[in-house]
Design a protein that fits this description.
transferase, kinase, CheY-like_superfamily, 43% helix, histidine kinase, 6-stranded antiparallel beta sheet, alpha+beta, 5-stranded antiparallel beta sheet
């Protein structure tokens, strides 16, 4: 670039100035940066200031070479400042640290100018470096001192301030701001006269400040100040003259602490001390104040008046020495345990020696006063002489003991009504008569409220007469109380008299005795005399009813045991009849119609005999049940067609089903038979036709309810009710309706086992059955079956085919039967069906066959056998052959295959007697079962 002469002249002058500045040491280096060519030229002084090789000053440098020697913490700021100057042009100034030849960093300031061309692009960037390290050090020290001063002033407790000679505030700390209640800009430069509300106080404060500044002496004093917002405060101020470096007083510095709370506390302390002094003089107790640090004790005058010691000050050891030797160690340990622990309150009873050498019983109480750290400082207490009180208490206790013995011996309580203080005294015995606990406080209201409403007027009138100064009557009444806490009604008899002072009754005192038992006895005696004959008849009738019920229960149980025993033998006999007849019919086929007719007649008779036996078992509750969760609505709805066909066209069937019935747990087939039996019984009671209603409902039996049926325990039940509008039954027939073989029908028209079967099934299902009937008004039979509370999944219904062919298989069957006829029929029947058969009459032979014939697939065994029954045989066989299938047969299975009358789910059973078809289907189903 070229320059004009004038420009050259100006440049020469600048260069001359720079040389002079360099010579004077103000500038420690110069640079010129050709920004467009990115070429940096520096002089030797700048190179030396940056710790660069001086040879580099005579060559072109890169900016980053110079920046690399700058303190790492300052590099980013330097780069940003250079970039900003190049972008905008004009003057540039920036301070940073650079490392010199000695390796130490020094503060320098770079000052330059960026020249821009006509397009605004930087073309040249000359500048100089100035050493500012000393200036920065001085500024840092100044800033540190100012920061320290501000921190000290702010941290100083209370108020710290400075004022000039005219009393204007120059500076104030945070405490000054808080105390004055104004920000600094509101009080700096103002005087107390302008800040304080009370001109007199302001003048006093300013006069004190002037005195300190004039005398040059420090003063400490208390000041009372009032603020413009109405607050008043007490300050403890320390004021000193503020001097310049020459020692001339130019103002005042001061500190002030707000001691308003301390002054109030001192006033309260003085007031408390005065109250303590007056109380110590007024009380009869010996008041003591023990300074724990040195053991000094101060006493009031009661030490002299009570115990004869003419002392007002003693040591703690003197007090301890005057305690009875037998009590001393205990008291000493007890009081020091409180002092040395964390407690504050202490009390003890001991014997204290009087001045005449005798001992007084005292109650001593004290409180420990502790410092802020919990250390014990003082203990103040009071010593009460118990001698007079103990004598009075002993006399009172003796008198009360006599009274207690007298009242307890007479089983009575006493009472004392203080009419002056409106107070009532009742011992525990009297409180009990009003249903109140021994420790509960009582008042006259408890007496008034505790009287039975029917007796209150007369009782209170009698009490008023006893307290009347004119009548002064004897209080002698009997009345009822209602227990306040227990509500129990009791009879009491009370006697008492008033105690008068002149014409005024001050107390009414008396005794009371409970007479509830006597009143009850009198009432019972009166009732017995009035109703003796009727009660005797009622008792006899009740006893007769109970005896009849017991006899009926015993009779039903005996019949049940008898029928169960008969059924087993009868079923075995029927098995030897029905089975062979069935085989004979199959062998004859249709060759001889007359013989087939005779065989069918015999089978029909034997089958009806088997049904009769089944009803006997149902009555005796010895039939095996297979209960499942039941919806009675579905069961009743499902058998509607069967009921309609059974009743005939002259009887109209109506079903009333519950909206949301509970479920029960019962044998579905047996329950259907029960409902069918009830319907058939109702049909026989409706010879001319009528209406039969089957209803389901949910029912809950609650003790004491008017509608609760007799002998049905509390609980929730599923109800099935069968009602007819037929001829009904008289009471004597109802009483025998469930008896087996009892019937009102003509000979040959009924077995008398229909309702017996109903009774047996319901009882075996843990339910109940009730009959309501009246002659000419119909009959209602209600079944109460327990509600199923648990969630039990319904068992899958067995699937059987009514058209399955009468055929067997090739699996080997082992027959075990102790009855020869039944065993032979079983052999013949299974052989006829094509099964290979082995037979045994008992368990021992059966197990031997089982061991010797591993191809046996099915064990077909009777349940009731001598020595080892069928269930025991099956258990042993399954231990040897877990895959063996088992089919039981029995005419009486009680306690062998059942739990509480319910058939085990895993048991397969065919009842005796059985037909060839039933046997074929059952054997095939068991063998086909997949485990």
């Amino acid at each position: 670039m070229s320059s004009s002469p004038s420009t050259g002249t100006h440049g020469e002058r600048d260069a001359e100035r720079v040389k002079l500045a360099l010579a004077a040491g103000a500038i420690i280096g110069t640079w010129f940066w050709d920004v467009a060519q990115d070429s940096l030229t520096v002089d030797d002084a700048l190179a030396q200031a940056h710790g660069l090789d001086p040879a580099m000053a005579r060559s072109e440098l890169r900016l980053e070479q110079v920046v690399s020697v700058v303190h790492p913490d300052d590099r980013q700021g330097l780069t940003q400042a250079i970039d900003e100057a190049v972008r905008r042009g004009g003057r540039y100034a920036h301070q940073y640290r650079t490392r010199g030849p000695d390796g130490a960093y020094r503060w320098i300031e770079a000052i330059g100018r960026v020249d821009l061309d006509t397009q605004g692009n930087a073309v040249g960037f000359p500048g100089v470096l100035i050493d500012i390290d000393e200036r920065r050090r001085v500024e840092a020290e100044r800033d540190q001192a100012q920061t320290l001063l501000r921190s000290f002033v702010e941290a100083a407790p209370g108020v710290v301030y400075a004022k000039d000679r005219q009393g204007r505030i120059l500076i104030g700390n945070r405490g000054t701001t808080d105390l004055i209640g104004l920000p600094p800009d509101a009080y700096v430069g103002r005087t107390d006269a302008e800040l304080l509300a009370d001109p007199v106080q302001a003048a006093t404060v300013m006069a004190t400040d002037e005195r300190v500044m004039a005398s040059g002496q420090t003063e400490q004093l208390e000041e009372e100040v009032s603020f413009r917002d109405g607050r008043r405060a007490h300050w403890l101020s320390t004021k000193s003259p503020l001097r310049d470096p020459d020692g001339t007083v130019i103002g005042l510095v001061g500190t002030s602490l707000d001691i308003t709370d301390r002054k109030a506390a001192e006033a309260r302390h003085l007031e408390a001390e005065e109250r303590y002094r007056l109380a110590a003089h007024a009380t009869n107790d010996a008041i003591w104040d023990w300074r724990i640090s040195d053991g000094h004790v101060i006493w009031n005058e009661a030490l002299t008046t009570l115990f004869g010691h003419a002392l007002s000050e003693t040591s703690a050891q003197w007090w301890l020495d005057h305690i009875h030797p037998d009590d001393r160690a205990r008291v000493d340990a007890d009081i020091h345990a409180v002092i040395e622990g964390e407690g504050t309150a202490w009390n003890n009873e001991y014997r204290f020696r009087r001045a005449d050498g005798s001992f007084a019983s005292v109650l001593d109480r004290g409180t420990v006063l502790r410092g802020r750290g919990g250390e014990p400082l003082r203990m103040i207490g009071a010593m009460l002489d118990l001698t007079v009180r103990e004598a009075a208490e002993a006399a009172l206790a003796k008198s009360e003991e006599r009274l207690r013995f007298a009242t307890e011996a007479g089983d009575m309580g006493f009472w004392d009504v203080d009419l002056v203080r409106d107070a009532l005294i009742w011992p525990p015995r009297t409180k009990a008569m009003f249903g109140i606990s021994p420790d509960v406080p009582v008042s006259l209201r408890d007496f008034n409220d505790g009287i039975h409403p029917d007796d209150r007027e007369a009782t209170l009138a009698a009490f008023a007469a006893a307290a009347d100064p004119v009548q002064r009557a004897l209080y002698d009444v009997e009345y009822r109380t209602i227990g306040k806490e227990d509500g129990v009604v009791r009879w009491v008899a009370a006697k008492g008299r008033g105690h008068f002072e002149g014409d005024r009754c001050v107390r009414v005192v008396g005794v009371v005795i409970e007479i509830t038992a006597r009143k009850i006895a009198d009432a019972r005696l009166k009732e017995l005399n009035e109703h003796l004959e009727s009660r005797v008849l009622e008792e006899v009738a009740e006893r007769t009813r109970v005896e009849d019920a017991l006899r009926q229960s015993q009779k039903m149980e005996a019949v049940g045991q008898l029928t169960g025993g008969i059924a087993h033998d009868f079923n075995n006999m029927l098995a030897t009849v029905i089975g062979p007849l069935d085989l004979l019919a199959m062998r004859l086929g249709d060759n001889d119609p007359r013989a087939k007719r005779y065989i069918d007649m015999a089978i029909d008779g034997a089958t009806r005999a088997a049904q009769l036996t089944q009803r006997l078992l149902a009555f005796s509750r010895q039939q095996p049940l297979q209960p499942v969760p039941l919806d009675v609505n579905q069961l009743v709805a499902g058998m509607s067609d069967l009921l309609v066909h059974s009743l005939g066209s002259s009887i109209r069937l109506q079903t009333v089903l519950a909206a949301d019935p509970w479920r029960t747990f019962a044998d579905a087939n047996q329950l259907e038979n029960v409902i069918l039996n009830l319907a058939v019984n109702a049909r026989d009671a409706l010879p001319g036709g009528g209406r039969l209603t089957v209803e389901t409902a949910n029912g809950e039996i609650t003790a004491g309810a008017a509608s609760a049926p007799a002998d049905v325990p509390d609980g929730q039940y599923v109800l099935i009710t069968v009602t007819d509008n037929g001829s009904g039954m008289p009471p004597e027939v109802i009483a025998k309706a469930f008896d087996p073989f009892f019937t009102t029908k003509k000979v040959g028209q009924g077995t008398g086992l229909g309702l017996s079967q109903v009774y047996g099934f319901v009882k075996q299902s843990a339910g109940h059955v009730k009959i309501r009937s009246a002659v000419g008004q119909g009959t209602t039979v209600t079944l109460y079956l327990p509600r199923l509370m648990a969630d039990i999944a319904a068992a899958p219904s067995p699937t059987t085919s009514g058209t399955a062919p009468l055929s067997g298989g090739r699996e080997r069957v082992l027959i075990v039967e102790d009855e020869p006829g039944v065993r032979q029929f079983s052999i013949d029947a299974l052989s006829e069906l094509g099964y290979p058969v082995l037979a045994a009459e008992g368990a021992a032979a059966a197990l031997a066959l089982l061991d010797s014939h591993p191809d046996i697939a099915l064990l077909f065994t009777d349940v009731v056998m001598p020595e080892v029954n069928g269930r025991q045989l099956a258990d042993e066989a399954l231990k040897r052959r877990p895959d063996l299938k088992v089919l039981f047969t029995t005419g009486y299975s009680r306690n062998a295959l059942e739990h509480d009358g319910v058939l085990d789910p895993s048991v397969h059973l065919i009842g005796k007697p059985f037909t060839l078809e039933e046997l074929a289907l059952r054997v095939r189903a068991v063998l086909a079962e997949v485990r």
